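Fig. S4 source data, part A: sequence.
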Amino acid sequence: MTELLIGCGHARVKRLGASGTERWTDLVTLDSNAGCNPDVIHDLDVLPYPFAANQFDEIHAYHVLEHCGRQGDWKYFFAQWSELWRITKPGGIFCGIVPHHSSAWAWGDPSHTRIVAIENFTFLDQDNYADCGKTAMTDFRPYYKANWKLVHQQVTDDLQQVFILQAFKS
């Protein structure tokens, strides 16, 4: 199993994963800071990412996504999630931790450029677009073709939003 840890910083701890995958097996690290000694140096705001399609079984991002893109930039939002989907194997997972929107850290950190809320994931699951025209949900299908399913989410006592998405591909 090949895993990617984006925005690794100096940490190499696996905080989330599928049952039975509590340790890294074949870890690739990515960070924009060469001083963190990542395997790959790359700015996450620059797409595409330097990886092959269907390369990773798991992608992990712990307190990284809130530093990418800009709040309200829906084109980047869908482009980034499409790119993450591209490099994830069919059935692979994305494990993330971001500050919950009610956390003082969500907007208190001057390097945070957006909030990643659990509600955002509604727009990543193609099945949810069946409600377009029946609800106020915006239809992004002309721009977004990837498909992620939310398989786990929780808010921790210290107001961290923890989630796991699974990549569905035909």
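Fig. S4 source data, part B ends here. The helical segments are 74-87, 104-108.
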